[in-house]
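During the second year of the project, the team shifted from modelling isolated chains to modelling whole assemblies. The rationale, set out in the original proposal, was that interfaces cannot be judged from single-chain predictions alone. As a representative example for this report, we include one of the complexes processed in the last quarter. Its constituent sequences, exactly as entered into the pipeline, are reproduced here:
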Amino acid sequence: MSEPIAFSAAANAKIADLLGRYPRKQGALIPTLYVAQDEFGWLKPEVMQLVANTLELPLSSVLATAMFYTMLYKKPVGRFHVQICTNVSCYLLGSDELMAIAQAALGIAPGESTPDGLFTLESVQCLCACDRAPTLQINKEDHFKVTPAKFKELLETLKTDGVKLGPPVGWLADQHHAHAAHA
Amino acid sequence: MSTKPTAYTPHPMEKRVLLRDHLGVDFTRLENYLAHGGFKMWQKAMELGRDGVLAEVKASGLRGRGGAGFPTGMKWSFLPKDERPRYLVVNADEGEPGTFKDRYFLELDPFRQLEGILIAAYTINAHVSYIYIRGEYWNSKAVTEDAIAQLYKAGWLGKNIQGSGFDLDVYMQTGAGAYICGEETALIESIEGKPGMPRLKPPFPANIGVFGMPTIVNNTETLSAVPVILEMGGEVWAALGTPKNGGTKLVGVAGHVKTPGLFEVPMGASMRDVIYTLGGGITDDREILAIIPGGSSCPFLTKDEIDVAMDFDGLKPVGSMLGTACITVMAEGLTDLLGVMQRVTAFYQHESCGQCTPCRQGTGWLKAIADKMDEGLGEDAHIDLLISACNQIEGNTICAHGEAAAWPIRSIAKKFRPQLEAAIRQRAAAHGYVVKPLAAHPAA
Ligand SMILES: Cc1cc2nc3c(=O)[nH]c(=O)nc-3n(C[C@H](O)[C@H](O)[C@H](O)COP(=O)(O)O)c2cc1C
Ligand code: SF4
Ligand code: FES
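Output from the structure prediction step:
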């Protein structure tokens, strides 16, 4: 494995605060995995090990928990994580069309990332804003009552922004890493 | 954080004691919450004492708004009378497809829930409370975290709250994209940092809950109602609803309706009125094909089954349940019911935690059959196979996810057979296949 990694001082302070909230260290595991994810982009093997060391937990416990939850990323995620709700109410009101638009605009299928690391596309379950369907989420932001026209425009804007911002840090190395980890 | 609120007039059919977005006040600011009577009920709780609060909650007939409708007062009194620390866990993991009610409190009126938490924690004598908010609810998490910080700063949380001698720490905990963590024992496992796999009951959380200690798990809407109940008095709240179903209920209407949204009605309101009056009627004035009464775990209803009272008992005659009381409407001519069924099977298959065979395998079967039908390879006998698979899941699992997966599919297979048979033929024709007639199938 590559060079050792460490949490920033800010992340360590957050984790110390989290540890104070639970009578057992493992209680802080999911919030700590989020901290780690924010810091390193995704939970690559050495990040899982770092979390295990920090919380003094066996690596197996960290892996078991990380594997269970879809929002804890076990592979790299692009700069813009486009998550389209395809559950019933959104399906009734046109989520398939939104998915088709995204696939055409980005050239990838759900579950895939663009090779330049700018986009990851995903179909997700009910975002529980069905009265404002169809819905989608891009990174941490909700988009409600999304029309095909609005969505096309949004994707164009993100593409332009993406070119300016570039892929997440370490995208190429992480891609190789993810392939190696899954091989 | 929240968009600038604007005032509006709710429909006269509504009875609003919980919802108040129509006032146009930004209730995410503590000063506004206090200016509208906030935390007065905490003071009243201190005057009433633990037994007094419990008596009011029992008198109110409040039943859990998480979907199962268990009487809240009774749940609180089940805690063992021992010296172990207790926990109050708030279920804000809203994830039931079709539901969008807890989001309201979390995003727009977070102190209602927090005052409810203070009162409930005091009543059951818990000094730590975890609010478990669904991972995808980024805005809810930000608003709630900010509200908690405002309370600590103003001395409404922490040690010796407002000189009362009562201590309470409230921590926001977040889920990470697993629907099953809405099930209370899976949620407890998740707070402990483990995969969200439901526990066998008994022991119940009241005895062995989070970190092995006595725990009360309540839904966000349940706890948000508590200050209102103290304000009105338990009996006045109870009288708002129907016998055994006290108070008001948040109801949602979504899907093919003209004015989708979140509303508040007295318990026992007519579902037809909720759909046609509050929901504004069906898109293009069409007929209803099917409705899901309260989240996709509930058996589907036909258009002839909506003359029911929206309370925890009112849907029994039509073989369904109130669930979360957020209705999904599917219109005739606009709905591909086979497509809907495929989505529902995919959801429960994806969200099964996998620890019991009937649920893990059964949800896989349901999805595989629905996929086959969807791909044009369906047969009429598949409809019976669906029913048979549902029957084998039901009652044979650790948690109610099994039933949640089986009931809606069985209801579609039984009540909408002609529509499914037509859809199977239409899909097959689109692919140039011929559907095997039922008689030719050995299972027929
Ligand atoms: C599969 C499954 C999912 C559930 N999801 C939720 C949920 O998202 N929110 C919720 O409050 N209750 C949910 N529940 C119900 C909880 O287990 C529990 O009954 C509820 O939190 C108790 O609170 P209450 O008494 O205030 O309703 C779910 C139950 C099951 C079986
Ligand atoms: S019924 Fe399904 S979700 Fe519930 S414990 Fe069993 S496998 Fe897990
Ligand atoms: S179905 Fe998409 S938000 Fe509920």
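The helical segments of chain A are 9-19, 29-40, 45-55, 59-68, 88-92, 95-106, 148-165, 171-182. The CA atoms of residues 97 and 148 of chain A lie 7 Å apart.
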